[in-house]
Amino acid sequence: MATWKNEIESRKTFAIISHPDAGKTTLTEKLLYFGGAIREAGSVKGKKNQRHATSDWMEIEKQRGISVTSSVMEFNYQGHRINILDTPGHEDFSEDTYRTLTAADSATMLIDAAKGVEAQTKKLFKVCSMRGIPIFTFINKLDRQGRDPFELMEEMEDILGIRSYPVNWPIGMGQDFHGIYDRHAKKVEWFNPDSPSQTEVVYVNGTDDPKLKERIDPQLLAAFQEEIELLDVAGDAYDEERIKSGELTPVFFGSAVSNFGVQNFLEYFMEWAPAPVGRESDQGFVSPLSDNFSGFIFKIQANMNPKHRDRIAFMRITSGKYSPGMQVNHVRIGKNMKLHQPTQFLAKDRSIVQEAYAGDIIGLYDPGTFRIGDTLAESGTFSFEEMPHFSPEHFAAISVKDAMKHKSFEKGLQQLTEEGAIQLFKTYQRVPEQQIVGVVGVLQFEVLEHRLNNEYNAHIKMENLPLSVARWVDGPAEAMNTFTRKQKNLALDRNDRLVALFENEFQLNMAKDKYPDISFHENSYFV
Ligand code: G4P
Known about the structure:
Blueprint: H1 3-9, E1 11-17, H2 24-34, H3 43-53, H4 59-64, E2 72-77, E3 80-85, H5 95-100, E4 106-112, H6 119-131, E5 135-140, H7 149-160, E6 163-166, E7 168-171, E8 179-182, E9 187-190, E10 200-203, H8 210-213, H9 218-234, H10 240-244, E11 248-253, H11 262-272, E12 279-281, E13 284-286, E14 294-302, E15 311-319, E16 321-322, E17 327-330, E18 335-338, E19 343-345, E20 350-352, E21 356-357, E22 361-365, E23 375-377, E24 394-400, H12 406-419, E25 423-427, E26 435-439, H13 443-456, E27 460-465, E28 469-474, H14 477-486, E29 490-492, E30 498-502, H15 505-514, E31 519-521
Parallel strand pairs: 1-3, 1-4, 4-5, 5-11, 6-11
Antiparallel strand pairs: 2-3, 7-8, 8-9, 9-10, 12-13, 14-15, 14-23, 15-22, 16-21, 17-18, 17-23, 19-20, 24-26, 24-27, 25-26, 25-29, 28-30, 28-31, 29-30
Helix pairs in contact: 12-13
Guanosine-5',3'-tetraphosphate binds next to helix 2.
GO molecular function: GTP binding; GTPase activity; translation release factor activity, codon nonspecific; translation release factor activity, codon specific
Family: Belongs to the TRAFAC class translation factor GTPase superfamily. Classic translation factor GTPase family. PrfC subfamily.
Binding site for GTP: 18-25, 86-90, 140-143
């Protein structure tokens, strides 16, 4: 096999999904630390702050002390190249949090042992399960008293519909936390609260090995032995296929802040997580090992450098190898173009890419030529599957204050929609039609107002609408006819697909009962 193909096979591109405060920043730091990309914890947070300081619309984020931008981090670990797609931890995330997941080949779900499956994890999980990607679970904060591990597994099954395969299992918890037992490799990693990251590893001959008796009090040991027996007898067995398809999640316990259990997780992850996976296109499946370099734009970020008002389009390389000076087809606009100085992102810096392979993410300078979902290919005119839109959760009617500024207002709205910062709808029945903006997190409204004002000199009027759910609808012609005549709050998305807007889930369910022949899709994918 040619070496560039080995390069591709050595890659792991994944995202961490979690609810704010579960410890994602902490876990990311530890992973970067293992990869030698940072020397000490805190560097990632430091970097976030720095980036805020150099970006003007991110001023909003700075004032609120949060981050709404997703970033990509890369490091090498034991012959593997790891790309972590970071997703914002705050509730005010935007739609591109979801879309970032389309660039990942697997996900790590991080759960706080005391809190279990929380709202944001559930939302992000749904997107992963829609794509059927493998999901690895890290249950964090075992150094504190949390919930019963069986209860957490049950919750994952009830709320997320995924079965668990615990690879390791905690011996005690909180004050009583002794360490983790690796069921697969039959070894114990002892936890020492005084120097938690200095892991002492002992191989054992099952759970009744005398080495365990020496260190665990009889009551705790008996409970632990019983738990392992229960898992062995009644739990799901290791099943590679079910893990690959996202039906079964390997579960790991640990404490990110103590750097405990992180390496155990990382080592299994390296072995089990998929190498870059190909993608479907309108002309068939594109294999990552194809000679033809190709990729798709999944995220556009404006103003990474305020002096230049630049936009960076993030591309996931789907197949082949990138080399400098390469010419590609921009399939949507039918033009051949040179890729100018793509950048890659390390823990601290951006650097110019010399070579990149399927599975990698590169940032392309974007003078306004790219849209979310665009395909670039060295040869051929195929397009990758359309990027899905997901239901916004907040809606506002929007118009420009000064009619003279109408043109730049429209241009701004269009650009922000292309970047994926907002979704734009227009009312379906209302005359004159009205523009409606939908966002996943309310902070995006502020970003929108700030940017239209600053970059397009357009002052806007925004009126919040009492709506929180959008569904893309379709059905047989006759049923659609009745539906569009009778249903209120219908709108068209930017591709003129019909969308029904509802105040809440209750209203949506009423519509489902009333119009059984109509299908209500949670995202634009299925229409
Ligand atoms: P996020 O990115 O998911 O929002 O979470 P982040 O890593 O910022 O962690 C949230 C809080 O949880 C932090 O505490 C962090 O130290 C703590 N934490 C992370 N992992 C563990 C763990 O394994 N055990 C325990 N006990 N705590 C953990 P903080 O007080 O909010 O911030 P800090 O002052 O400690 O940085």
